[in-house]
Design a protein that fits this description.
By secondary structure, the protein is of the alpha+beta class. It has helices spanning 3-15, 18-25, 29-43, 59-85, 102-114, 198-204, 218-228, 269-282; strands at 48-50, 55-57, 90-96, 119-125, 141-145, 153-161, 163-168, 232-235, 244-248, 255-262. A hairpin with a 4-residue loop joins strand 1 (48-50) and strand 2 (55-57). 32% of the residues are buried.
């Protein structure tokens, strides 16, 4: 019973869908199905009840899931301890924009408790690089938001957050209970510099090319609205600066919080980081 096969099994058990599990593992579905069938042969029992409508764990599968998670977690601890003795227990984390997110705080505490000997280095990234330096190989893993160019990266969603229009408190639209993008069509928007990831730029501009002041950081976004009366998008639960307000945008999809890393990265600390991040952001 190989660790890799158990890793495949856990992915299927968590997704309860072979297609989604294969996508998560960056492999095609047929070899994944073969690996699970081989595991069932080794165990001597069916692990999943499969039908055309859904996939569910059998009682044996539920027991194996608990044991597999424990075994994989222990394997991660072994890798980390060996890396620490070898002097290689360092991970560089890129964080986009606002590190006050409670998910970040929970993750920092949980990761420190799990891996007290690991040297965690933080790279704060501004809004011009949603990959936080991943494409430039400046970080091992990024806590960021989509969308962006995912070429060569593995990306896992942690949470979604609703967004709203950032306005001056005395703006006529500030009295509305909600807005649509069409309500802001004739307004000047803050925008990111030329060369910023086009998918990222398009999302925060509501899918349209905009004119307005160029910004690079969260504080610059707020100041652009405060001083120039421009508009833009922000997270609905972010506390705006004095003199500003946020009105829900009901026709914008939520902002995706993601953890991302370079495909094929063999840093033994990565898998544990992703696991702990997933738990921290779902608490």
């Amino acid at each position: 019973m190989e660790l890799r096969t158990l890793h495949y099994f856990v992915a299927v058990a968590e997704e309860l869908h072979f297609g989604r599990a294969a996508a998560r593992l960056h492999m095609s579905q047929p070899p994944l199905s073969r690996a699970i069938k081989q595991l069932e042969t080794e165990v001597g029992a069916t692990l999943f009840d499969r039908s055309s409508a859904r996939v569910t764990l059998t009682p044996v599968g539920a027991v194996l899931l608990d044991e597999a998670r424990s075994l994989l977690d222990h394997a991660d601890r072994v890798r980390v301890r060996v890396a620490a003795v070898a002097g290689a227990a360092t991970i560089t984390v890129g964080i986009l924009g606002d590190s006050t997110d409670p998910g970040v705080r929970r993750l920092a505490g949980a990761y420190r408790r799990r891996h007290p000997d690991v040297d965690v280095r933080i790279r704060d990234a501004d809004l011009t690089d949603p990959t936080c330096g991943l494409h430039a190989q400046l970080v091992d893993v990024a806590l960021t938001r989509g969308p962006f160019d995912e070429t060569g990266l593995t990306v896992q969603e942690l949470r979604t957050d609703p967004v709203g229009a950032l306005l001056r408190a005395d703006d006529p639209l500030a009295r509305r209970t909600h807005l649509k993008l069409a309500d802001l069509a004739d307004r000047r928007w803050f925008r990111f510099p030329e060369g910023t990831d086009p998918g990222w730029q398009a999302y925060w501009n509501g899918g349209e090319p905009r004119e307005g002041p160029v910004v690079r950081a969260v504080q610059e976004c707020q100041q652009a609205v405060l001083w120039n009366g421009t508009v833009g998008m922000t997270l609905l639960d972010h506390e705006p600066a004095e003199g500003l307000t946020v009105v829900p945008l009901i026709d914008m999809p939520p902002s995706r919080v993601v953890v991302a890393w370079n495909e094929g990265d063999t840093n033994p600390l990565l898998r544990s980081f992703v696991q702990i991040a997933t738990a921290a952001y779902h608490d």
